[in-house]
Structures are given as structure tokens and as C-alpha cells.
Amino acid sequence: MTHTPIAQRTLGTASPLTVSSLGLGCMGMSEFYGTPDEQGGTDTIHRALDLGVTFLDTADMYGPFTNEQLVGKAVAGRRDEVQLATKFGNERLPDGTMVGINGRPDYVRSACDASLQRLGVDHVDLYYQHRVDRTVPIEETVGAMAELVRAGKVRHLGLSEASAATIRRAHGVHPITALQTEYSLFTRDLEDEVLPTIRELGIGLVPYSPLGRGLLTGAITRSDGADGEADRRRSAYFPRFQGEALSANLALVDKVREIAAEKGCTPGQLALAWVLAQGDDVAPIPGTKRVAYLEENVGAAAVELTADDLSALEQAVPREAVAGERYGDMSHIDG
Length: 335
Fold this sequence. Notes:
The protein has 10 helices and 11 strands. The protein is of the alpha/beta class. It has a single domain (about 10-315), classed as TIM Barrel. The strands form 3 sheets. The chain has a 7-stranded parallel β-sheet with strand order 3-4-5-8-9-10-11, covered by helices on one side. The protein has a two-stranded antiparallel ribbon with strand order 1-2. Helix 7 (about 245-265) packs antiparallel against helix 10 (about 305-315). The radius of gyration is 19 Å and the shape is globular.
């Protein structure tokens, strides 16, 4: 199988980081989307690097903690090829219990040290606050993150799921290189305020779940698509996968499938190509733990969308037609 070479894109202007235009989300290798698969995850990371997908995304909470270890082992000996991103802020205990969102400066420092140890590296390229702690001024959290940059432990700073106002305040303390937030044909609310703000400030966008947590691949049906009991997508935590909402959303996917057939690609490749077409400051991180799905995602780089294609997609999947909130509990999203 041949693949179009993966181009590079630059995130941020004040503190620029060059990454592969398509990244790899590593979360599902360890938790949430079915049975963990360390060997499959390792094989997928190795194949990603061989294909030029060098922007790897993890977080301390995934596993918890085990995903960073997996990623660290997988990139050992190839660290110089990788743009390594991890996150702090969703505090968990070793048994998986969620403690809460923590943005206190002392926690920022200790979380970073722990991540570096698990990853087996002396620095990470991009360090995100995973969720905004509304009990701690963002200036204090980012101030502590900036200390990590000065100490050489972190090269660039990022935020995840932050509001426009929070982003602006954070950027005033230290340049923010990237915002990671959910963005896909199924999730476009950031276009109202957040996207204009980060473009004004020169901050790159790293969309997670660019395939709508798998819905936009066409692989999920009303009766299956969940990888065993551990697949959290089938829980009430993700309303778009429930009942009538799922039926309505799958009807939208059918329309995407029709356009994909005309383009000679898969629905997932078409959906990823749409995200890639939203700007050169956008680097999505579709997640997978399987080499075959990685290779399918990489194929999106060869899908060229015309203005007519983009218009057809947006008519096929109007923003208001997507059924269900993206999370059952949106209280952890900064607003």
C-alpha cells in the first residue's frame, strides 16, 4: 500500500511548533475504547512514525498513567523523530478514580515531572492543560506551565477545551502554541468564538475526535461498533450514541458515505480531509490502536476537496442536524 507523504504544519506563531499535519491520538490503546492493546498500540505507533505521522498525543489520565508508559517505550530510540504532546489536569488515582480537575501550580509541576518519568524523556514538545480548573486563576496555572518551559522540561504550551476568554488570558501570560478541542463535521461550535480568537492570537488548532469518535467512519451501526464492555461510547456519557440520537446521526453518516463513494475514498477519509481543509493551522489527531485504521486515516492526506465538495459536505451535515450533546455532562467544559 502506497501513501501520500504526510506534510508538516506549524502550530502557533509566537511559539511555533512544526508537526505532522496528521497526528495520532494514543488514548484508546490503553482505555475507554474497548480492551487495552499494548502490542497493537506499539505496532501502530511504529507504523505511524514510518509513515511520517510524528505528532503523538497522550495524557497522564489515560490508563491512568499506562498510556504515557506505552508511548514512551514505543518511541524509545526514535525520540528525535517525534513531536510528543501530553496533558495534565484531570487528576486520577492509580485505581482509576477521578479526583477532579486540578490546575494548582504545585500540581502542574509534580504532574509534569511524573509524566517525564513515565515517558522516559527529558522534555515534552507540547504540554497541555487538559481541562480548565475554574477554582484556580488561569494566570496561575499558565504561570507554573511557563516555569516548566524555562526549566527546559517543556518546549511549548497548550490548552484543551478552553473558552475564548480563558485562551486570551492564558496567552497574555505566556504564548500558547495550540488549542486542543473537539472538532469535526459533527462538532463545530468552536467556529463561533474560539476559532476566531485563536486565529487572532496566532494559536494553532489540534482537533481531537475528528471522526466523531468513530461515527464518521461508517463502521459504527445501531447494533454494534462497540469494542466490548469497556467501550465507553456506548454509555450515557456520550449521548450521540444513544437511541434516537444515534439513528439520526447515522442517517447523516449515510450522506457522508454517498459523497465519499463519489470521491473514491472512505467516509472516514472524507471526514478527515474536511478537517484538514479547514486551514494550515489545523493538525487533527485521530486516535486508533490498529495499524489498518491508521493506514486508512493516512489515506485522507491524498483526498483533495474542492469548494463544491466542502459545500456539499456542509449541506449534507448541517451543524444543527447533529443529535445529542457531545458529552452527557458538559460541566467540565470551560464556557
